[in-house]
Amino acid sequence: MLSAEHFALLSRLLDVDSLPSLSMVHAKAFTTRHVPPSPADMPLLVTSIESGALLKQVCGVLRAVYPLEHPARLICLPTSHVTAQTLGALLSQDGFVTEGLPYALYLSPLPVGSSFETFQEIIAHLRAPDGCPWDRKQTHQTLRKYLLEESYETLAAMDANDPVKMREEFGDLLLQIVLNAQIGYEAGTFNMTEVFKEIHDKLVRRHPHVFGQVQVDGVGQVLANWESIKQEERRTRGEEEKSLLDGLPAALPALSQAQEYQSRAARVGFDWPEIEGVLEKIREEIEEIRRSATLAELTTELGDLLFALVNLARWKKVDAEAALRETNQKFRNRFGYIEKRAREMGRDLKEMSLQEMDALWDEAKNAMR
Fold first, then answer.
1. Whole-angstrom distance, CA of residue 89 vs CA of residue 72
2. Do residues 15 and 101 both lie within one domain?
3. 20, 123, 264, 328: least buried by Cβ within 10 Å?
4. How many whole angstroms separate alpha carbon 280 and alpha carbon 286?
């Protein structure tokens, strides 16, 4: 790290001693990372950069958080020379570093609110005695409906492939998680650090092919290992052996639940060997619907047909739930077009013939391509 002499020099050159806080990180810490190890809304000082290759490695990690046009100052410690550049220039150009000499890289902070730490602080403030009355009265149970709503709004943004909306909705979803973690902390049951630690350890433990020495051959083996590790975790905790299909929430939409059941069963070989078996099952279920004599029989056979259609979606690597939502939205848009055109024509839909509405439907299909 920096000597007292070098830090004093940097303080003078950058005026960092007047800053309320500063993250100081050794350059080698970036060599094994994909994101910076410090909050982006704090000033950052990267020390011990002694080669152009290391500088590019550091900048390559920094670009995961900082824009390429973000100002950066590179300081040669022996000469006190300061090079003012952008992060992008340091990443794409050569010649800024004399090999073997120690350099430090300084980045000014991103705007307040650009880090998880600041976000967690604002949630804690909202729950504090001088915070917001609405936020202070919330509990895990009162927040359930908001978590569900935000989850579906996030899915809608993803289905629309709208990056701006996704950015907004992911933030709203994160709010629910952090707010619940703050409530847990206040109750003394868990905190955000424990949430992080648990999911961190789980990911490392369940990816031995990434963080360990296990060799895998494709996604199928990864999923099989995942299930095996989960079973071992349960045995270690002394839990009863669970079904492969356990663990899915009861409130999961039926199409998603069916697809996940089928995917889990397929991991252990309970699956058609060829897609023709899936298609034949669909034909079989359609025929059984034709032969249904009662409402109860029809209900059962329709359920079987839907299950078989979900299996076809799985075989074709289509998300059945997303596909149906997309079709629902398409129907809504086209029917809305029919309603709009009927109003423009001074007509009441109830008085229009099916043929007239079909003509407007075709018009809507052409207009919305």
1. 9
2. yes
3. 20
4. 10
Pairwise CA distance, residues 280 & 285, whole Å: 9
20 Cβ contact list (under 8 Å, min separation 6)? none
What are the tens digits of pLDDT across the range 26-59? Answer: 999 999 999 999 999 999 999 999 999 999 999 9
Which pair of tokens denotes residue 236?
């270690």
Which pLDDT tens digit goes with each residue over 254-295? Answer: 999 999 989 888 888 889 999 999 999 999 999 999 999 999
- In a shared domain, residues 279 and 329: no
| CATH for 306 | 1.10.287.1080
Q: What sign does the dihedral 200-206-210-211 (CA atoms) show?
A: positive
Distance CA 271, CA 257 (A): 17
Q: What is the chain's Cα-based Rg?
A: 29
Q: What is the pTM of this model?
A: 0.71
How far apart (Å, rounded) are the C-alpha atoms in residues 106 and 89? Answer: 14
The arrangement of strands across the sheet holding 71-76 comes to 23-26, 44-49, 103-107, 71-76, 81-86
Please check whether residue 31 lies inside any domain of the structure.
Answer: yes
